[in-house]
C-alpha cells in the first residue's frame, strides 16, 4: 500500500493543486489518477496564468478565439472552462465511486469581484452552467462580502469550494454560511445529498507570515516556534469541524462540508516537504497539493496515523506560546486575507494582459 493509499485509509482525500491543457491531452492527469491515487483537482487564477502562458497547448484555441473576435476575458474563461470540463470527465469514474465526495474539479470566480455578493453569485451560476458537469466545484473566497454569496450558491444547488480561509474565526463563519445555504436548499425541495462543499484552509502561508514575525522578535523562545503556526491553526479548525458537524446538525441527507488543507507545499526549504500532509491526516478531510509535494509523500512514507482527531490541546499550546512571544495573530490573519485576494487579482490581471497581446 502506498503512502497516498494510507492517507485515504485515514480519511484524507488527495487532490492535485494544478491543472493545464498539457496535463489533460498528454494523459498525465489520467496517469496521476492511476499511479498516484489522485482523486480530485483544484485550480486558481495563478495556476491558469502559469498554464496558459507556457508552451503551445493553447495555441490552436487562442487562434480560433482570435479569429472569432472573442474578448480577452471571455477567451480566458472559455479556455479555463474547457480544461475544467475535460478534467471533470477524466474524474467521472472516481466521482461515481466516491458517491460525489471526490472526483471533484474546482474553478474560481473572478477574484476582482470578491467584494460583490451579487456579481459573485451571477458568475458562480455561469460557471456551474457552462462547465455543465456534476463534479465541478465553484471556488468562492471567504471574504466578508462573499459569505452571503456562498449561502446563495449552495441554496441553488451549486457545489462550492470556499477558499482563502486563514483563521478559525473566519472558518466558523464559513460553517454558518454552509448551514444556511444547505437549509435553504432543503426548504425549497432540492436534493441536498447532491450538494457538496469543502472549506479550503490555507496552511503554509500562515507559517510564512508568522515565521517572519518570530524572526523579527528574535528570542530563543520565539525562534523555536517557527513552522508551528500553520499546522496548529488547521488543527484548531478541525476541532471546530468536529464540533460543527455533529449528529443531526444538518438537514436529512445533507453532506458535511469537509475541511480542505490548501497551500500545503512548504515555502521554507528547511522544513520537511511532507509536513503539511503528515501532520494534518485524519477523517473527513482533503489535502490538495502540488505534484512535488505529492511525490515527496509517496517517497517518504512517513505517516504516523491520525494527527488531527486528538490534536486540539497541542494546537492551543502553540497559539498561547505565539501570543506570549508577541505575535499579533489577528493582524497576521488580516494581512493574509488581504494578500490572498490581491495575489489572485494580480495573477488574473497578468493573465488577461498576456492573453490580450495574443488576441
TrEMBL record:
| Chemical reaction(s) catalysed | D-sedoheptulose 7-phosphate + D-glyceraldehyde 3-phosphate = D-erythrose 4-phosphate + beta-D-fructose 6-phosphate
Q: Any one Gene Ontology biological process term?
A: carbohydrate metabolic process
Q: Please provide, alphabetically and separated by semicolons, the GO molecular function terms listed in this UniProt record.
A: transaldolase activity
Query: Per its UniProt record, what Pfam families does this chain match?
Result: TAL_FSA
Q: What GO cellular-component annotations does this UniProt entry give?
A: cytoplasm
Q: What is its EC number?
A: 2.2.1.2
Q: Which domain of life is it from?
A: Bacteria
* Places the protein is found: Cytoplasm
Catalytic residues per the record?
Answer: 139 (schiff-base intermediate with substrate)
Give the record's keywords alphabetically: Cytoplasm, Pentose shunt, Schiff base, Transferase
- Involved pathway(s): Carbohydrate degradation; pentose phosphate pathway; D-glyceraldehyde 3-phosphate and beta-D-fructose 6-phosphate from D-ribose 5-phosphate and D-xylulose 5-phosphate (non-oxidative stage): step 2/3
PROSITE patterns reported for this sequence: TRANSALDOLASE_1
Stored InterPro entries: Aldolase_TIM, TAL/FSA, Transaldolase_2, Transaldolase_AS
Identify the enzyme class: transferase
* Main subcellular location of this protein, as a coarse class: cytoplasm
Into which family does the record put it?
Belongs to the transaldolase family. Type 2 subfamily.
- Function, in words: Transaldolase is important for the balance of metabolites in the pentose-phosphate pathway.
Spell out the protein name for this chain: Transaldolase
Recorded source organism is: Corynebacterium yudongzhengii
Recall the taxonomic lineage recorded for the source organism.
Bacteria, Bacillati, Actinomycetota, Actinomycetes, Mycobacteriales
